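Q: Sequence in, structure out?
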Amino acid sequence: MVQTLSRGVILAVGLVFCAAVAQAQQHAALVMDARTGRIIHEENADTRVHPASLTKMMTLYIVFDQIRQGRLSLDQKITVSANAAAQPPSRLGLKAGQKIELRYLIRAAAIKSANDAATAMGDAIGGSEEGFARMMNQYARAMGLDSTSFKNANGLTRPGHMSTARDMATLGRRLVYDFPQYYNIFGRTSTSAGIATVRNTNRRVLEEYQGADGIKTGYTKAAGFNVVSSAQRGDRRVIVAVLGGRSTASRNAEAERLMDLGFSRMPATARVVAPTPLRTVAVASAAPRGSTAAPVVVARTDGSIASVRPMPRSLDSDAISRNSATIAAAIAEVNAELTAQAARNAPPAAEGRPMPRPGSVAGPVAAVKAVVGSASTFAVAEPAARPAPPDPAALEVASAGTTGGNDWGVQLGAYRAKGDAERQLLTTALQDVPELAGGLRRVEAAKVRGVTVYRAQFVGLSQQDALGACAALARLQAACLPLAPGI
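A: Exactly. Output:
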């Protein structure tokens, strides 16, 4: 009996040891200088593990790309699928057949990590869970995420749904540089998702770590506690990925330690090397039933971003024009959230000198090519008429897609004195920049760490005019940051 007991104890110890080894093998981490993509530190960075809700970074990337192409709009109402409504927590509380604005689904997925919200967007875009997963994998291949395979939009454990710390950090960097106009969503500690207020699953790091501004957490029993986190201090930005953590607290501590490591080892200055733009080419076959877009093939390109002409929306696009009170409330909400983020992260501006908004990249040319500022919502335009289906032989066009509204703007700088901002607007208006002719001059006051700054802006522009104005000002060696509609 003693011998049997001893064998049992040895077996139990062996099982515990094996479990510990398995857990150690799952732990993975990577530290990246976001400006260049250079790897500063890595540990098991190419080990395939469960990404959990880090998956939602890809879901949101695709949603942002659909908006860029004009296939979706932030005010468009999405009909919740039965599949989405049946997803387990974390949840926003969606019901099958419910209609909800896309901006609220984005907020719920990015901030609360709501599985039902992510699945609702995926099912709407891809026509089904499987259809959207195919799109996700096409995007992953185009980004060079060769060790990643997706099976669903929310990251719940499925056989074969795997990734690596390297791939997840790379995807996080893509969100920072490819969609800076939307990246600010990941830094909000709480916000309205229409039917509920959602709180950020990463709020402790956002509130405690200097410069932290995103991006995504994840947890399942199989994955452990995961996070891709980013912080910016001055011109330096670090991105870290931690997968396989044992608890929220230990994961956060590890992420903060690695961000400290990154800042300590990266140079003070570096030329920003943005990721190679992706080129989206539509396939001339029929779209999946219920989908907003034709199937896509995504490829890397060394040229400018190309997009597909907007396709007719098959969702319930009541794409509503809000009344003035609702518009004002939306503007106030976004402005308050962005001001709170800036107060946490940005140093006060020197007297009379421009201070870039969060997400900006030094240099006017970089701002035009790689940066669209995380901006306030300026206006909600009347919905444009639905475009006719494109000629399959001419699906690829050379310029970025647009929703067609005059809800863009440009920012020329932020100043400690209101008079300096007004003087900058007047000086710019007198220059030969025809793209600004139809814009309205505005000085926006904001508090940054208790200091009031005044942002010199032209608002009420089209996307084409905003980007064109910044290109023209760059040629004149003047600073300019395009401002896209906020989420």
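The two ends are 68 Å apart (CA to CA).
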